[in-house]
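Why this split exists: single-chain examples teach little about how molecules sit against one another. For that reason, every record in the complexes split bundles all components of an assembly together and asks for one structure covering all of them. Below is a record exactly as it appears in the raw files.
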Amino acid sequence: AFASTPMSPWEPHTALDKVYEKMDANLSIVRAKLNRPLTLAEKVVYGHLDDAHGSPAPVRGKSYLKLRPDRVAMQDATAQMATLQFISAGLPTTAVPTTIHCDHLIAAQNGAVADLAKANVDNKEVFDFLASAGAKYGMGFWKPGSGIIHQIVLENYAIPGGLMIGTDSHTPNAGGLGMVAIGVGGADAVDVMAGLAWELKAPKVIGVKLTGKLNEWTSPKDVILKVAGILTVKGGTGAIVEYHGPGVESLSCTGMATICNMGAEIGATTSMFPYNHRMADYLNATSRSAIASLANATMGNLTPDEGCEYDQLIEIDLNTLEPHINGPFTPDLAHPLSKFAEAVEKNGWPAELKVGLIGSCTNSSYEDMTRSASLVRQALDKGVKFQSVFDCTPGSEQVRATIERDGIISTFADAGGIVLANACGPCIGQWNREDVPKGTPNSIVTSFNRNFTSRNDGNPKTHAFVASPELVTAFALAGSLKFNPATDTLKDKDGNEFKLKAPYGDELPQKGFDPGMDTYQPPAAEGSALKVHVADDSTRLQLLTPFKPWDGKDYEDCALLIKVLGKCTTDHISMAGPWLKYRGHLDNISNNMYIGAINAENKEANKVKNQLTGEYGGVPDTARYYKAHGVKWVVVGDDNYGEGSSREHAALEPRHLGGVAVIVKSFARIAETNLKKQGMLALTFADPMDYDKISPSDKISIVGLSEFAEGKPLTAHVKKTDGTVISIQLTHSYNTEQIGWFKAGSALNKIRSDLAA
Ligand code: F3S
């Protein structure tokens, strides 16, 4: 009985009513199995089960669920390889609504206009590629200057009760509109775009009950700063943080988004709020009244059941919650405002504030901007300007245009502030900071989310603190971290003392939002004839050539490329930093393959023996040598191989340079799945002690592949230099579908061949 309502004004062909109908049907099946009250997180997650009938009753923290997300969002850095892989699947269009957002590749230096123009030149080929692929394959493309992925999603795509995956850690921002929005790696995005079900371990649910009401200097940001202090950077791992309770009423929708956004800092799978009238207000203000009506009508599935139980419960009384400042160097080192000056003194942190930064995907709502501007106006009235550098990165063109129209940008400018491009900029180190030489200890405070060493400006001596935009603004007006705006005074132009009144602002613009410039490119109505732009001589982009299918034979006499000693994270396998610019070029980025891993033979990084020449060389060069000489190779590793990020390059690179198997004591789960998807053998020693039996000059054969089957071990014959051969049993976790990927050469090959069949 639902009316037909698109999921977004930009996507008239989609139907939110279908999403809600499926959710309802799934939940009646799951409820019959579980027979207990459900949390909101469970309702949304289980409401998106691919096959609710066929799946066993979900157990939080234990079962693996196959889900059908409603949409995919990708930012420009991660979208490159994901899109290249999607293209290689040979599908005509993405299976679910997908958008691409150009925000990470824009560096901040000389203000919005100049910085955007420079980024458009520097990254032209990447933007052209993403725009052309978007047009062809049905993906909405948000041009550079449109804003930051999570803000654009909140303004245009987030839906109460929806399930979204995004290739960025702060995807949970959409939880502010009651969505389960999860940050993933490119490989997961490719699966969903290609129409595969998406796997997630049933999350645990941490309840945060809010009571009371925000007041004076306290803002939504302080809720998450407090929660981060309680749970620490690991405390949310494997869990969805579900806020509830009467205190939710005092939070704006964008404030809830801020809280969810920064849930990434406690390692949470995502964070979310129950649907309420504050969300409806925001939907109405962003031209989505029909979605609000539909959500109002389906309220029961968008709020938690009475009496539902959480795996952990935290209570926060907003009446007594103080503003917080977290840092330096970690987002969970929480200081209440009243104790902060003392902490600065005691720890010897630089008290002078060099730069205050507001905005980013975390805190650039209209409300944030008006509340900050209310403080600046008070200062200007007293003839006071910023004592620190003050920069603002608006989250979207819509926010920028609206705050320009409403005089907020000029207020900041009058006090000496600068508004940078609608992009990530200083939040991700895209900041050519010139006020402090590298290596000089100094303090900055931001309303962003992450503050790890060097993140913002590449200077390990920069002490970065995180606080609400209002506090950042107050600190920047005082020029000092020891200033407590709730109790201390500033001096006006005549030297008289005055106190800032607590910030105030509008949750939503009274005159409505000004959409600003048109920065959206819709997909073409018919994309099949369109070409994707990749230059043959590009160093940053390379179309992928499908990997060869398995030839039906055992892998005989493979060279051991490297036996890794100790930790082998995705960073050891595919380093970040300067290599990021090659994310869209598999051959070029493969020159970082395993260069961080320690060779068990000589305890050195990037120095392995070439079994054919006997000489020592870099790992990628040696792998290339083997490949050129038709020699397959394997890697041997220790425990928890591939932990860290979900970067799919860590599996693509070994496959590209001729690797056939990775044999380890144990895998990090995502790394194992990624290897399987690329057609590699991800195998474990049945007896972990067998790791010690492998020597650098061994040749390894993997036999029994023609009987490769679920639950059936494989065997390695390890040939020593003296000709002796030892046999080792190898276990694996391949299921029948995954064995199909291996045989086809990769999961995408399998999709392509199924399509052709
Ligand atoms: Fe961008 Fe920083 Fe957010 S990098 S997506 S503004 S966390």
